[in-house]
Amino acid sequence: MTTTLGVIMNGVTGRMGHRQHLLRSVLAINAQGGVALSDGEKVLLRPVLVGRNAAKLAEIAAEHGIEDHTTDLDAALADPENLVYFDAQVTRARVKAILRAIEAGKHVYTEKPTAESVAEAVALAEAATAAGVKNGVVQDKLFLPGLLKLKRLVDGGFFGRILSVRGEFGYWVFEGDWQAAQRPSWNYRAEDGGGMTLDMFPHWQYVMENLFGPIRSVYAQTTTHIPARVDENGRAYDATADDAAYGIFELEGGIIAQINSSWSVRVNRDELVEFQVDGTEGSAVAGLRGCRIQHRSTTPKPVWNPDLPVTVSFRDGWQEVPDNAEFDNGFKIQWEMFVRHVLEDAPFPHDFAAGARGVQLAELGLRSAAEGRRLTVGAL
Ligand SMILES: NC(=O)c1ccc[n+]([C@@H]2O[C@H](COP(=O)([O-])OP(=O)(O)OC[C@H]3O[C@@H](n4cnc5c(N)ncnc54)[C@H](O)[C@@H]3O)[C@@H](O)[C@H]2O)c1
């Protein structure tokens, strides 16, 4: 049997809402015949597109044969057939809209960060719990093939005792004057909810917590390397938000993680994000898709001698971790999980409380940078 679940989608004209959530998740799920429940039943998703621009919504709806679209969020929320509210709006608009959805009794799923401050993020989690609605936050990086392979290595005991993690994330985002910027301009304005720390620390929080363990402290240095940019309409603006964040995190068990995040760095890596993990028994370098390892028994013995040219090709001494599985789109996997969570109470650990821990790390990172000191990450 097949049933249909009404899903309000707010922010589908945006980068994430359109590509990852509407096309690669919701419509892709329908194209494969729906979400399979444990009893074999299939659930199709009926998207209701919500946004501020009626013409843009109508265009997207027509392109994909979607019937429902409106600029009236309250009307969409009033329809009892729409059980789920999803939010991919700019971060700043999120809390208000989600609170309305919770008030209307909807189950809520959202892009990260769930809010701009810990106080708001915790309030959202409490409101959802008090209303008894299911709640979830996107934690897509956990489903990247490279990080799934890394998790496999951790779970298989490959590393021995993990000592350290080095993350390198970023790429050059054009200033917008002589080449158009490839990210929205609000990302570079603090007053619009932008900034590297608020954007990426929530990701690093759940990556570290799920792969290596809870985070105990943070020290961060943030900066705005490029202070002026040009927006989508060709207008110059002041970049008031941080465009780079250099963080050092202490994890349970003494693991030290260091993650550089920058939109002002040119890529000299194999992937846009890479994590090197060093353990007593072996090391790994994981990217979005790939993951390479070196075991202690195959570790070369470098000897420091600047008078001689390097004779060993260090990169050649690493072995590729095999796929051993087919990797689906992570956003889609999480949508399927959330639908099962809503309809048959399947486990979904990526809830608003988890989202609040991500916002907490961002807030502490920014405070650490402002005060120039290391801060403890306490329980929320
Ligand atoms: N999970 C991820 O990897 C990931 C990646 C990028 C962005 N995000 C998150 O997704 C959200 C959207 O980011 P994006 O890059 O798609 O942004 P975007 O600018 O491309 O899209 C923003 C959407 O919000 C809408 N919107 C609602 N109120 C608005 C307002 N007051 N001003 C401007 N736009 C408004 C826009 O119309 C648009 O549909 C953000 O919260 C961001 O943190 C997540």
TrEMBL record:
Short name of any one Pfam family annotated for the protein: GFO_IDH_MocA
Domain GFO/IDH/MocA-like oxidoreductase: 148-284
InterPro entries: Gfo/Idh/MocA-like_OxRdtase_N (IPR000683), GFO_IDH_MocA-like_dom (IPR055170), NAD(P)-bd_dom_sf (IPR036291)
Residue span, Gfo/Idh/MocA-like oxidoreductase N-terminal domain: 49-134
Superkingdom, natural source: Bacteria
Name of the featured protein: Gfo/Idh/MocA family oxidoreductase
Organism: Actinocorallia longicatena
